[in-house]
């Protein structure tokens, strides 16, 4: 029995996520990991989910197959939430539930991209998106981030130079890995460019509700229906519900529906019902999300304070404004990939910038995740990093 | 804003499932539907699942992201069950959990098929597989079923004529839609041909445990590691767990793992844990599956008896041996697609054979599902069918 050629071919076209491989190395108990990208399970509403599960399982309906676009009750509450978020009516037919927002990305890539189509991503990039666009055979061009998010002026230069993207992907709020948020004026301009040039914007927004001191700006989607919005309950409730969604024009949702049938038929009526229950319990939900925000804000501030106090101007890092990540650059030429083995030896892990690099190398950068350690541990982590970098 | 060309192109390449569209028409309360393909929710172990959910939610671990190949505890119990089923050791690394076995099919098509690759399916075919293989751009050739399952001699003729399939797909037990089971000698021969010609067999086995009077024969996979086995808990526990799996050589599982990361990252640790709990509760499980078998056997017998008594030699139908479906042929030239509107008027629905046709037209055939009606209702359904066909 021999490996068939197609299998070998497919393997060559894909890369395992660098973060996943790294996580395997950083699972040692004596290492404080700032390398993960996981929300804190201790902050997830376990007891409320248990109540919702018990209530859902009072009837047998949640055990059956459900509709490919998702349980109607869940789509209804998400349509209402998206309507409030983007400031125009999002009909239920324009909400499609996916198995996490990663599946929305993957089905959208199939629907919107032919091999060789141009996709614009941010640099540094969300690797889950990069993996999907690469697998779709897209041509990928990166536009850098600055402290106001995607450099929309660089995108505009590309358009003026004749580039014709099919899709522009942006993590608009509290970027993974970049930590920054797209400024309101850039959002408006990005939407205008999408309409003028006929490309789709995929606004990937898993972190928007995890703001610390002030809410995230109006979504890019609030400026144009040419913007497909993705989000999920993974960061505010629990990843194990596997509930993500897209808010997209009806014809996009119907094309995605055909693909969803072939991909996995439908989602879980049980986890959809649990998510719908929690999302409609508004008073509880507001208080719950607020408690997650407060915990993450305290951790993010502790991390950023420790970095700034310890490294002063040797490391420049983003503000702790929301989300799960801080992006930090050594200003003295320290190579973060070369530093990593020493950091692991000192008992701290992070993800080197190179793991997220598309055009730039981000050789002096690193992504630091603050979600799963408390303030004292985060301070200790930065102490260890300082000793490794000495 | 205009529909982009790729979207229109993708749409042209896909067909919505004829069954799904039909189901929308047959949801009327006054219609007895034999058209569905759903297991009976009333037979699903709702209370046992509620206990398992409560137990799983005693800890926060089940709320987090899990590994792409599935929760280790679930993979372990399935490896043990597959080992017992196929009679050789299936290591945990060769078990990969998917979002229902439909996702296993869809990821395997990506891994094993290049556009234009030849896939052999059965005629009539499982439409979920057909949809996946068509979307993958495969060339599809059908081999007919008879009362002993796939005509492996016809497959052999194709191989002698020089056809070189990459994949042969078979629903080996209690075929959907054909109702038949592949005979043991044909299983052995199919496995020999796979080894001799280097193709993969995908043995799609969601119904194997739903036998009525005698267990299904040894799996095709028991004869060769060139056979990838798919199954799920959807028909024995509940579809909403969205737990399917493949048992496949390690290099196939690793290729699927890369695709799974891009497709949707991972499954739900919560529903995986619930499934693992139920599958390891052996005494309970044996009794539960037995009760489902007994209920379906009584329904299947009632349906088959009613068809044979009512139509005598005007309709020939498969025996009630297991699974969820009976396949029936009008021997007098009655066109089942033409009959359907009259049948709906008389208050009964079925799926015309044409919906499953690949090469043959199956114009005089129909698929009857017996899972969700009791014996009296099934008898009434056949009465209505007889009046429509008069």
Automatic annotation (TrEMBL), chains A, B:
The keyword Transferase is annotated on this UniProt entry: yes
**Coiled-coil ranges per UniProt:** none
Kindly indicate whether the keyword Secreted belongs to this entry.
Answer: no
Keywords, A to Z, come to: Aminotransferase, Pyridoxal phosphate, Transferase
Q: Which Gene3D superfamilies match?
A: Aspartate Aminotransferase, domain 1, Type I PLP-dependent aspartate aminotransferase-like (Major domain)
GO terms (molecular function) for this protein are: transaminase activity
**InterPro entries in the record:** Aminotransferase_I/II_large (IPR004839), Class-I_PLP-dep_aminotransf (IPR050859), PyrdxlP-dep_Trfase (IPR015424), PyrdxlP-dep_Trfase_major (IPR015421), PyrdxlP-dep_Trfase_small (IPR015422)
The record places domain Aminotransferase class I/classII large at 30-385
Task: List required co-factors.
Answer: pyridoxal 5'-phosphate
List the CDD domains.
AAT_like (cd00609)
Q: What is this protein called?
A: Aminotransferase
Naturally occurring in which organism (per UniProt): Nocardia rhizosphaerihabitans
State the organism's lineage: Bacteria, Bacillati, Actinomycetota, Actinomycetes, Mycobacteriales
